[in-house]
Design brief:
The structure holds 2 protein chains of 2 kinds.
Chain A: H1 33-49, H2 53-68, H3 75-87, H4 94-104, H5 112-122, H6 126-139, H7 146-166, E1 173-177, E2 188-193, E3 199-204, E4 214-215, E5 220-221, E6 224-229, E7 239-240, E8 251-256, E9 262-267, E10 274-281, E11 284-285, E12 303-308, E13 314-319, E14 329-336, E15 341-342, E16 346-347, E17 358-363, E18 369-374, E19 384-389, E20 400-401, E21 415-417, E22 423-428, E23 438-444, E24 452-457, E25 466-471, E26 482-491, E27 501-506, E28 511-517, E29 524-530, E30 533-540, E31 547-553, E32 560-563, E33 566-568, E34 576-579, H8 596-608, E35 613-619, H9 626-646, E36 654-658, H10 671-677, E37 679-686
Helix pairs in contact in A: 1-2, 2-3, 3-4, 4-5, 5-6, 6-7
Chain B: H1 2-12, H2 14-17, H3 35-48, H4 52-65, H5 70-82, H6 86-99, H7 104-116, H8 120-132, H9 138-150, H10 154-167, H11 172-184, H12 188-201, H13 206-219, H14 222-235, H15 240-252, H16 256-269, H17 274-286, H18 290-303, H19 309-320, H20 324-336, H21 340-349
The chains are: A alpha+beta, B mainly alpha.
């Protein structure tokens, strides 16, 4: 099973039967024997490939078009050329052939009218499409699945009505082909990006597929995963990501964690289609495994796309298992840390899922916006991309169609969005493409910007006119509520990159929300922090003192990207660490509960290195007197020491001291500087 | 046609500009040897016949013969006023007050002179003295109301216009100006009612209709606004303000072609009319002719670098043309000039 085949919804049609009708030609209709022979041969070859999947239609089309030059008025040939176009890439081109076939012989096949209607729909001629769908419906004879067929036609008519509405107000975007570094004449689809858009993974079917095999099902190369990087100079030439992610069979990209270190892969060979996971470690990508997914996620049904939440603790995935609302639905599962497996899935409910298929799920790293493809809701044809937001009460907002031109009457399935919400990556067939499906970048331009007009009036009878500004409407431009922190982690002395563990802690809940690592070769790391929490970031590596940073991000904070290069110091006498996640009540030495996570890390360090002796020091800003601040800073240092003692650390390993504002690390003349100066440090005094 | 328009306007407001009035001294009994009084009376006759130079000679003669002749000073001040020699008028009025502080009209006329010399502070002071001394002239309130309006003290302006209307309920300009005050106080219904009252007194003044149109626009009644502007244009085909304003209403109604035509017409009447040029470019943006919009707005900016809205608008046109760098430079300039919208656009499109 190929990944791509799951999403060609528009052409998976109940009603149609492309096997019908043979192309019959007569010798006497041609001016010469040679031409007759030429046409006959090409038709025969075309017929041979016709119905052999997408690759087959493509080859058949080449033969049929050769024959067509000498046989333009054969209804069956026109019909079959229409089918070849419709079943491959250039669906729009099918219209002229279906039209001609219909003119020549409207009864050539039972489904011609239906194809004609669909071709009109694909070409955005919604009114005409509706007309033909209605015509087709009126001619339908009662049959075994009459009700089902009628429902399908009514659905198509509704799609056309949706299309008429949607194209009235196009979404303001630029859509650009991502370029020749990524796209080729072969299909490229299912793009996945890191939140900071520095890495792109996608699926392609190229001659350099691992093993070089062609899928007999559709005569195209097996699906493989490709990778490209962008460090500010544009996308690098995409490379086959090779083993162990790629195999001789179909390997496809499904979902990527925002930091680019965990990947969901589609494995079509198992169970009709299952999801696997691979993690990026110091040795590169691990062999994909479904160990954690076997019990609750993968099933004998289709599991197709999946997406990680920003913290990697929740996954959203698509399955057509029983218990849903019809077709493929979106489900959610939480990771069970103890059992090391994904827990029992929960259906996302009827606001998101419809009786039709949902697919292509993508959870944005802001933790509250989900994108998915659906054939239901107000799709204008096949799958359209929709967006829904998680409300504060845990419900999902009504899905919103992303609109034309992101969505088209054809299938629009693959969609992922950058951390800042400004660029989406989609796959599409467009006029400026390199061939077949290509990857495109959608740049969201926000609402239309109204210009300012100026008027004036002679308001007072004998004075000069007075001018006024008019602005027709106000625009509110929203960005994603997300903070991306990225940078490199290196040795403070040698400056060499370090592979370090990064823990993101919700200080209020005192729980680790996410664990990631910096890259062993480059030291690069990236963490995504949805707004609305007080985060502690703890970075640790073997033999080094940990590093602590605090990001208190109010709920309304808009998108921001913070570059933070981190230098870790070796565990040796004299080295010190600022404990950024220790909080006190204002003007007091009472520890706030948000401090416990950081304090517990300090306890762990002291337990891991039993010979360490440390000095805990308190520091203040220069507000209030020296005397007051000396007392306060010492009391605060003592409060930390008392906590450590309460957790079993021996008193004789701990010293405390208050330095008031005598050792500032920033000027005290700004609030920002004063905030940096209010701190607790620990220093190694014996190792 | 333009000349005709000016004549209508100025003749209509002539009664407002006619601030001077010589005072006759009814107690004056002319007996032999009273040459000063004779000259004074002659001066009055000349003044009435608008023979100002002769009037001036006679009042001066009267003053020469009788240096403490307060009314002669006052009357000569009126002659100077008519001759637009406001500084001389001020000197004579001050002398008048020195000699006789009960001549209340002298304070009002002092206010008027200062007002016409654009010294609003002194004007306000002397209008107020005349009012405090009990003047019953609606114009003192009216003109003081105008000063308040121009200082954006709309409530005080409203109080003065109310007093002016109490004293003279048939002056169309008082209603117009009170209507404008209501408009500034966001009392649009009252503004409309006053503009309509002004029109009911005199339906030949085009800017009453322009103001009425703008009030309807504020109220959201765009069709009525267009109707009023059209009426203003019917009264005065050269009224470029009405064309420009009507264009903005058509713009608001998304009739961008119609708006363009109005802006073009305004520009035909007044080729360098900067507001219409800016608005014309805005219509071009909506009609997706972004290059033309950039061209026009560049012309606006070159001519009037302080016309900051043009930077915001040109930024929008550049963004549509996908020339983001240029858009960001323009929005940055707009931000520096305090245009809030530019901050929103800049933060979305320009911040890395």
């Amino acid at each position: 099973m190929k990944f791509i085949n799951l999403f060609l919804a528009f052409i998976n049609i109940l009603i149609c039967n492309v096997l019908s009708q043979e192309i019959i030609i007569r010798k006497e209709d041609f001016t010469s024997k040679d031409i007759y022979k030429f046409v006959k041969e090409n038709i025969e070859k075309g017929e041979e490939f016709y119905t052999k999947g997408r690759g087959g239609y493509r080859t058949a089309l080449e033969y049929f078009l050769k024959a067509y030059k000498h046989l333009p008025n054969n209804p069956a040939l026109n019909y079959k050329i229409g089918i070849c176009y419709f079943k491959t890439i250039s669906k729009k081109l099918s219209l002229q052939y279906f039209k001609k076939a219909y003119e020549l012989n409207p009864n050539i096949t039972e489904d011609l009218l239906y194809y004609l209607a669909m071709a009109y729909q694909i070409n955005y001629e919604f009114e005409t499409a509706i007309e033909y769908y209605k015509k087709y419906k009126s001619r339908m004879l009662p049959s075994e699945n009459y009700a089902e067929k009628k429902k399908e036609i009514d659905k198509r008519i509704q799609e056309c009505i949706n299309g008429i509405e949607l194209i009235k107000n196009p979404t303001r975007v630029w859509i650009d082909n991502i370029g020749s570094a990524i796209n080729t004449q072969y299909p490229e689809y299912s793009p996945l990006i890191t939140a900071d858009e520095s890495m792109l993974l996608f699926t392609s079917r190229r001659p350099d597929t691992y093993g070089g095999g062609i899928d007999p099902e559709d005569n195209l190369y097996f699906e493989d995963i490709y990778v490209s990087y962008n460090h500010g100079q544009g996308w690098s030439l995409a490379k086959n990501i090779d083993k162990p992610l790629n195999t001789k069979g179909n390997d496809a990209t499904v979902g990527l964690s925002p930091d680019g270190r965990k990947l969901f892969i589609f494995n079509g060979a198992q169970n009709n289609g299952d999801i696997f996971i691979s993690e990026y470690t110091s040795k590169g990508w691990e062999k994909p495994s479904d160990k954690s997914l076997r019990k609750n996620i993968n099933s004998p049904y289709h599991e197709t796309t999946a997406s990680f939440s920003f913290d990697g603790r929740t996954m959203f995935f698509v399955s057509d298992r029983p218990g849903g609302y019809g077709g493929h639905d979106i489900w959610m599962s939480k990771y069970n840390e103890e059992k090391k497996e994904w827990g029992p899935p929960v259906n996302l409910g009827p606001v998101i899922n419809t009786e039709y298929d949902e697919e292509g799920v993508f959870m944005h790293p802001d933790g509250r916006t989900i994108f998915f493809a659906s054939k239901g809701h107000n799709s204008m044809g096949g799958f359209d991309i929709f967006k829904s937001t998680l409300n504060d009460d845990g419900t999902w907002s009504t899905p919103e169609n992303l609109g034309y031109p992101i969505n088209t009457p054809d299938d629009d399935v693959f969609f992922c969005l950058s951390g800042n919400g400004k660029r989406a990556y989609i796959s599409s067939v467009r006029e400026d493409g390199y061939g077949d499906y290509d990857i495109y970048v959608v740049t969201f331009r926000g609402p239309e910007k109204p210009p300012i007009l100026k008027t004036e009036d002679q308001l007072l009878a004998n004075a000069l006119p007075i001018t006024e500004s008019t602005i027709t409407e106000k625009v509110e431009i929203k960005t994603m509520r997300l903070t991306i922190v990225k940078g490199t982690i290196s040795d403070a002395f040698t400056q060499k990159p370090i592979e370090a563990f990064i823990e993101i802690i919700d200080n209020v809940k005192n729980e680790v929300v996410y664990v990631t690592q910096s890259d062993a070769q480059t030291g690069k790391y990236i963490v995504t922090l949805p707004s609305g929490r007080n985060y502690g970031i703890n970075v640790r590596a073997e033999g080094y003192l940990f590093f602590s940073e605090n990001f208190d991000i109010p709920p309304t904070t808009e998108y921001q990207e913070i570059i933070k290069d981190i230098y870790l110091s070796k565990l040796k006498v004299g080295e010190k660490v600022i404990l950024r996640n220790i909080f006190f009540d204002f003007g007091k030495a009472t520890l706030k509960p948000e401090s416990y996570a950081e304090l517990d890390r300090l306890v762990k360090l002291l337990n891991d290195y039993p010979n360490l002796r440390v000095e805990i020091s308190g520091h203040t800003d220069n507000i209030s007197s020296l005397e007051f601040n000396l007392k306060l800073s010492e009391a605060r240092a003592k409060a930390v020491v008392d906590y450590l003692i309460s957790k079993g650390i021996s008193q004789n390993r701990l010293e405390y001291k208050g330095y008031a504002f005598l050792q500032p690390i920033a000027p005290n003349d700004t609030e920002e500087g004063r905030k940096l100066n209010r701190r607790v440090e620990f220093k190694i005094i014996q190792d | 046609m333009k000349i005709l328009f000016l004549i209508i306007i100025f003749s209509s407001i002539f009664n407002l500009r006619n601030n001077s009035q010589v005072l006759e001294d009814t107690t004056l009994v002319i007996v032999e040897g009273q040459d000063a009084e004779l000259a004074f009376n002659k001066g009055i006759d000349f003044f009435k016949n608008k023979q100002y130079n002769e009037a001036l000679e006679n009042f001066s003669e009267a003053i020469k013969l009788k240096p403490n002749f307060a009314l002669a000073y006052f009357n000569r001040a009126n002659v100077y006023f008519e001759l637009h020699n406001y500084n001389e008028a001020i000197n004579d009025l001050k002398k008048t007050i020195d000699l006789d502080s009960n001549i209340i009209q002298a304070y009002y006329l002092l206010g008027r002179c200062y007002h016409l010399l654009n010294n609003s502070e002194e004007a306000f002071k002397f209008y107020t003295i005349s009012i405090n001394k009990g003047i019953k002239d609606s114009k003192a309130y009216y003109y003081r109301g105008q000063i308040c309006f121009q200082k954006s003290e709309y409530q005080s302006a409203l109080n003065d216009f109310n007093e002016a209307i109490k004293l003279d309920g048939n002056n169309e300009f008082y209603y117009n100006d009170r209507g404008s005050t209501y408009r500034k106080l966001d009392k649009i219904d009252e503004a409309i009612s006053d503009y309509l009252k002004a029109i009911s007194i005199n339906n030949k003044v085009d800017f009453f209709y322009t103001n009425l149109g703008s009030a309807y626009r504020k109220k959201g009644n765009l069709d009525k606004a267009i109707e009023s502007y059209t009426k203003a244009i019917e009264l005065n085909k050269e009224n470029y303000i009405a064309y420009n304003n009507r264009g903005t209403v058509k713009f608001e109604k998304k009739d961008y072609n119609g708006a363009s035509k109005d802006f073009e017409q305004a520009l035909k009447i007044k080729p360098a009319y900067i507001l219409a040029l800016n608005n014309y470019a805005c219509a071009k943006i909506k009609l997706k002719d972004y290059k033309k919009a950039v061209e026009i707005l560049t012309e606006v900016i070159n001519k009037y670098p302080d016309f900051t809205e043009a930077y915001l608008n040109r930024g929008i046109a550049y963004e549509e043309l996908r020339q983001l760098e240029k858009a960001c430079i323009d929005w940055e300039k707009a931000i520096k000039s305090g245009i809030k919208e530019a901050e929103t656009y800049f933060s979305y499109d320009c911040k890395k």
